[in-house]
Amino acid sequence: MRKLKIIGTGSYVPPKVLTNFDLEKMVDTSDEWIRGRTGVKERHIVEGNTATSDLAVEAAKDALSDAGLKAQDLDVIIIATATPDTAYPSTACWTQKGLGIKDIPVFDIGAACSGFLYGFEVAASLIATGKYNNILVSGAEVMSKVVDWEDRNTCVLFGDGAGACIVAATDGDSGILASYLGADGTIGHLLVQPAGGTRMPASHETVDKKLHTVHMQGREVFKYAVRTMGGSVAKVLKEANLTAEDIALYVPHQANLRIVEATCRRVNMPMSKTSVIIDKYGNVPASSIPLALDAANKKGKIKSGDLVLFSAFGAGFTWGAMIFKW
Ligand code: UT7
After folding, report:
1. What CATH number should be reported for the domain whose range is 176-325?
2. pTM, whole model, 2 decimals?
3. What distance in angstroms lies between residue 33's CA and the mean position of ligand 1's atoms?
4. Which residues are within 8 A (CB) of 236 and not within 5 positions of it... i.e. 6 or more apart?
5. What is the pLDDT of residues 253-265, one digit of tens each?
């Protein structure tokens, strides 16, 4: 297997900030409830006709600049998203257009909040073929356009944003030490955007019933998330013959701070090693891992040889974990 390196990371969130206090004026909620139950204080949301690829393009430019590369140096673009610009073309095609490049393979990954980890594993496999060298892997989401802003159970949770990294072939000894991906479609109904696909095409009725928005049985999802995140982390630590003590940085998907804390307790990971962004960004499905990675990287918190642990859980259900040697 060829070794791989993360040679650049990047982020972009839209400028508009929606605080919990703003939400108090929109639905029957309180800053105290949202902070206490989820850890979210504010989130960024898009305005006007801004779409997911617009955020992905900006995050990609940031990651390319960090890597010292131009868009023309990319060999593949992989965009993980649950909120594509259009059913087709893919958000990756729109991102490619936004970056002003052509003639390379580009595609989306549909694994909701686990999408970035799925995309990363695919990128590693493509690099291993020897055919591709520089791959953009990004998570990008515009959740604000698919939540029901009258449903306090869901609208307070999510935010918009994109994170990206450039994965490249290397002769060094960095790369994936252990990884695990899983899914269980039998419980998919617990977190679903029911309408707009071929099962329930868009109609006046689906729009009237707000079936194009997030429908979640939060308490059930919470239980699965804690169990699965903890189980996935334990699995990759065991596979790599490591313990939480060996990990320099933990970068989890962040649907709820309480899920992250519970996962940390289960695997003896101190919260001090965790890159937390949910307070500022909310749950930004496929983007939360690359956003949290970029936040830690730009603060100079990762050095060569450090072991970084990723873990995710999301709609599908999908999940995964990975230990990466920086
Ligand atoms: O990203 C992918 C996966 N997503 C997740 O992993 C999300 C998992 N689920 C969760 O994070 C949590 O279940 C939520 C944050 C969604 C909800 O927290 P909870 O502690 O499970 O609350 P709950 O749903 O059990 O609701 C408790 C109470 C209810 O009132 P009653 O029935 O006890 O009177 C809700 O109606 O809190 C009420 N409630 C709210 N109150 C104020 C629900 N949403 C709100 C709100 N403001 N925004």
Report:
1. 3.40.47.10
2. 0.97
3. 9
4. 178, 179, 180, 309, 321, 322, 323
5. 999 999 999 999 9
